[in-house]
Inverse folding.
């Protein structure tokens, strides 16, 4: 599913969510449209599904009116039904709000004029991606966006033993690649990443970890004196780097 298809599905789901009534069948259609587009959407879908399972046990009717304003509360059964409906409406509104949020971010990313603006919007969509669902999210936004926002990081080895970068990308996409071959002393390699925020963990004396989205790249630091990114040392601290601020960056590992 590319990002245009995801946007189209979100629009269709949003239309269904705006209707004053719903049914189990309608919810199933919404879930089919948007499941897997974004982890936060999946979480919202799960909450609605949980509430619907309760509804199936206490109500025979198929149609659910999405308002509790005029529901009677004369009997325990009526009170129970109204309490459930209020919970369901809350979950339904959360789902509707999340669909609208992701839909807006997709639209804003399409309309963005600069790499930094595009990266900001895609970062918001990516922000909830964790574990296996992170891969689904990456695929959902499409290859075209990755290419539009990608930046290059030149990795230079100055006097260090041959480096063996370890990456965790399980597939290949244009605009997203890590070095596969060893980098000898005096050599260099190029990594290509989306212009998002990279979290750099240099607190370990044995390794430097660069993480972006759900992916990471680890460099062993045996006998390394310093590691700099665009002239700023990364060792002994955690650093947040906004790659969108430049189309090209330089990562240098220096050994004496």
């Amino acid at each position: 599913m590319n990002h245009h298809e995801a946007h189209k599905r979100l629009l269709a789901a949003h239309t269904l969510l705006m209707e004053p009534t719903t049914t189990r069948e309608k919810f199933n259609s919404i879930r089919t449209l948007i499941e897997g587009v974004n982890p936060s959407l999946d979480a919202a879908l799960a909450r609605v599904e949980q509430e619907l399972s309760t509804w199936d046990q206490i109500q025979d009717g198929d149609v659910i009116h999405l308002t509790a304003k005029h529901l009677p509360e004369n009997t325990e059964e009526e009170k129970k039904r109204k309490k459930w409906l209020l919970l369901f409406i809350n979950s339904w509104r959360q789902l509707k709000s999340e669909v609208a949020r992701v839909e807006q971010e997709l639209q804003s990313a399409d309309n963005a004029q600069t790499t930094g603006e595009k990266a900001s919007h895609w970062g918001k969509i990516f922000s909830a991606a964790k574990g296996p669902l992170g891969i689904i999210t990456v695929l959902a936004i499409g290859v075209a966006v990755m290419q539009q926002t990608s930046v290059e990081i030149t990795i230079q080895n100055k006097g260090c033993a041959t480096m063996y970068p370890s990456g965790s990308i399980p597939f290949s996409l244009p605009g997203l690649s890590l070095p596969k071959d060893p980098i000898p002393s005096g050599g260099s390699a190029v990594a290509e990443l989306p212009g998002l925020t990279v979290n750099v963990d240099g607190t370990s004396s044995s390794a430097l970890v660069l993480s972006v989205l759900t992916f990471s790249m680890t460099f062993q630091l045996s006998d390394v004196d310093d590691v700099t990114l665009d002239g700023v040392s990364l060792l002994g601290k955690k650093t947040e780097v906004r790659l969108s601020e430049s189309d090209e960056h330089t990562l240098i590992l220096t050994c004496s």
Observations:
- Residues 3-111 form one domain.
- Confidence is low (pLDDT under 50) at residues 129-145.
- The first helix runs from residue 3 to 17.
- The two ends are 49 Å apart (CA to CA).
